[in-house]
Design brief:
This protein has 22 helices and 28 strands. The chain is an alpha/beta fold. The protein has 3 domains: 210 residues, Luciferase, Domain 3 (Luciferase, domain 3); 260 residues, Rossmann fold, CATH 3.40.50.980; 133 residues, ANL, C-terminal domain (GMP Synthetase, Chain A, domain 3). The longest helix has 19 residues. The protein starts with a helix and ends with a helix. One of its GO terms (cellular component) is plasma membrane. Its EC number is 6.2.1.3. It holds the Pfam family AMP-binding.
Amino acid sequence: SVWKSSVWKSLHHLNVFSLVFSPLSGARQQKLMAFRQKARTISGRREGPYRVLVAMQCLKREEFDGQDTMDKMFDYSVKRFGKADCLGTREVLSEENETQPNGKVFKKLVLGDYHWRSYTEVDKAVGLLGSGLTALGQRPKENVAIFCETRAEWMITAQACFRRNFPLITIYATLGEDAVAYGLNECGATHLITSIELMETKLKNILPEVPALQHLIYVDDETLTTTGYPETLRIHSMKSVMELGAKPENLKRPSPSDLAVVMYTSGSTGQPKGVMILHSNLTAGMAGQCERIPGLGLVDSYIGYLPLAHVLELTAEISCLTHGCRIGYSSPQTLTDESTKIKKGCKGDCTVLQPTLLAAVPEIMDRLHKTVMRRVQERSSLQRGLFQMCYDYKLEQLKKGHDTPLCDTLLFKKVKLLLGGNIRMMLSGGAPLSPATQYFINVCFCCPVAQGYGLTETSGAATITHYSDHSTGRVGAPLVCCEIKLRDWPQGGYTSRDQPNPRGEILIGGPNIAMGYYKSEHLNGDFLMENGQRWFCTGDVGEIHDDGCLQIVDRKKDLVKLQAGEYVSLAKVEGALKSCTLIDNICAYANSDQNYVISFVVPNQKELTSLAKKCGVEGEWEEICNHPSMEAEVVKVIAQVATSFKLQRFEIPQKVCLSPEPWTPETGLVTDAFKLRRKQLRSHYQSDIERLYGGK
């Protein structure tokens, strides 16, 4: 304890120098910004609507005056940033197969540098592709579908469709075959942009079930063998389509009220739904997001690796293009030096690109947290102790609004290198981020985490925390493009009369609200029109704090009433327990005719194997997961973690099922944003549910 006290005092004295100059560093200003009033009700009523202070008089619809469609926004960027780098792709130098001890073979990549296309070059490609699609019979206001991984060609396709007024139909690359066929048939697209890999693995089997499709366009430079594809289907490379577009012709540009995107959701509760998003919806959403990202411009590099078919990634990338930021493309399998497809000893995409901006879902940030902590645990006790001391000290200073340049330089600089070393801001969206993970990113990666909240139906984010706000559990004030109000939900115990803050179902209104679901008018009950403004009823339960910031406290569909009458928030239970290093992923489950909660857990292999060794349990990984003793040990660990988070007794899972296989979008058990697909998980683990509740 004497040693710890000495280290703590030394850290404090060495940091005094930076505190003396805190007015110069902006620390005082950031602290004032963090605690200032951000939004307030415009009605005087506790339920709202609430608007951010700078938009009290009117909501913003455009980032730049007169740029009221997506094609105008991109044209404006090309005029301003013509020769600057725009879209970058890494060269694949070689592919190698690597055999694991268990016999599985993994493809490993050796990648070179990023090759960049300027804004002018991308603009030319956009024009050629749009003209080429027209030459193939595509007409304005007729749908073009894209079913492709995140890459530069995806964005080029989107911009070509925006310019030509072709509504873009986006379908997740990881959806199952039935869901893909459903989306393609519902939208009726005659032209589909895709990749050779998806053609061979997913499309080939379902093409006979999609009779409207006439043209299949693959983005790869490789040559495709068309054997096995329907004879009525014409297959083209993107390069050949662009060659068709070499002859210029008159454009029929879109208007703000025209359909820009039909974005199919990931189908977490059933068949995917196509959300109809207008050009005016997207321009409003961009205006809101860009206002909340300080200093966005030519000096920034954004790494794009999340699915572009998800509204978070699409709007993040378009926001970057609007302000001249360059986008380097990546994937979850090549993101870091330790990613699954990077050959050992080679550099991941972050190391090469050294991005300044990164968007992530909480699942990705949780992985970063656990990766760093595992490295720390492998160090000596002295090094672990020093890390913890520096971490605690910096966290304390961070909450006061102060910087810690000494800790950053001597210790956390090495952690930052995991993501290239230059990250200045991260955006988290798609699901709630745990306080432990948020603080960890703030401290170890030396950058703010802006939590965002929004849906496909709101054309992206509706709220984003201010970069100076280090509070946890909140998602910030409304953006300048929208307003938020709360609707009482007495059945769940949430009303505007709650103390200390009003609570209720979150309703979002503004020019960013989508027009409804494509060919599914019967599902549009959650869209409302009041006094000339569209609103969307989210189904999420929120609480608005005194400074106007929103906190998500529950979801109507995630609330289960137990046999004894207690309400359990499954999301709350999962959020608390995911901080446990033993747990990679977790799904809480409860039946209303039972009096306790159970859970399905994807355990961390290294942690569980170590625990099994201590307990004398041996065997292959699957045998360890299925061993009753290990289920009992994990229940004990869960109980300890749950108690530390002050979960009620009835909220703590009493039994668990351990899954030896991770949940990925490919398994169909989570969405592309790694949200749990509860219906599919329930079906997948039905026999285990019966076992855990039946005591068999």
